[in-house]
Design brief:
The protein has eight helices and two strands; from the N terminus they run H-H-E-E-H-H-H-H-H-H. It has helices spanning 13-26, 31-48, 101-110, 115-128, 132-135, 143-161, 167-171, 179-194; strands at 60-61, 68-69. By secondary structure, it is mostly helical. It is globular, with a radius of gyration of 16 Å.
């Protein structure tokens, strides 16, 4: 998508994800796998309090002749610099704050991704982020800001872990075709963010 400086903040998250996933499909990739990976970047940005995930921070590329989402980039928590009042830069189906597991699962379904695939993505990302709250004191903020960042992470992680099930998920036992993509893409996204949070 060709976006100028102003319009990158005017589009909606679902519009960007849908357009980029469609472009991946036209370029030989998987539309649903692309939508899931782009949604993963949105979830990660929400978790860490990144209020600057604008339209130009969601991208695709063609490394091996097949179009796919780029690894996540330009990820940081903007909250300590905005008095802890920085909502998401782009709305996700009308919401830019207080997002939860249900919101992300609903967004995935509206983008064509099966509920179970989005749920697995959320759980694997949260598992990868398990130690991040413990690392906030190593970033360089003072104790007060570090404590607020730790509390924010734990609150948002708990919200995204909250049990949510729909009648469809209870009734369905079918496995998703994206299961093979899920673990590998989660590792890529978590690795992209790890250097800013915690080293092993």
């Amino acid at each position: 998508m060709q976006l100028n400086r102003a319009s990158k903040y005017l589009i909606k998250t679902e519009t960007a994800v849908s357009a980029l996933a469609d472009a991946c499909a036209r370029g030989g990739g998987s539309k649903l796998a692309a939508a899931l990976e782009l949604l993963r970047t949105v979830v990660l940005s929400w978790l860490i309090g990144n209020g600057d995930l604008h339209g130009k921070n969601l991208s695709i590329y063609c490394p091996d002749g097949v179009w796919q989402p780029t690894p996540a980039y330009d990820l940081l928590s903007t909250q300590p610099y905005t008095n802890w009042r920085d909502s998401m830069a782009l709305n996700l189906y009308g919401r830019a704050n207080r997002l939860s597991r249900k919101d992300f699962i609903d967004a995935g379904e509206r983008l064509g991704v099966r509920e179970r695939a989005t749920a697995r993505m959320l759980d694997s990302l949260l598992d990868a982020a398990e130690r991040w709250p413990e690392c906030c004191g190593d970033i360089g903020f003072d104790d007060r800001e570090s404590d607020r960042l730790t509390a924010m992470l734990r609150t948002r992680m708990a919200s995204d872990r909250r049990v949510y099930s729909s009648p469809r998920s209870v009734a369905s036992t079918a496995s998703t075709s994206l299961s093979g993509v899920d673990q590998e893409q989660t590792k890529r996204t978590a690795d992209s963010a790890r250097s800013g949070w915690c080293t092993t």
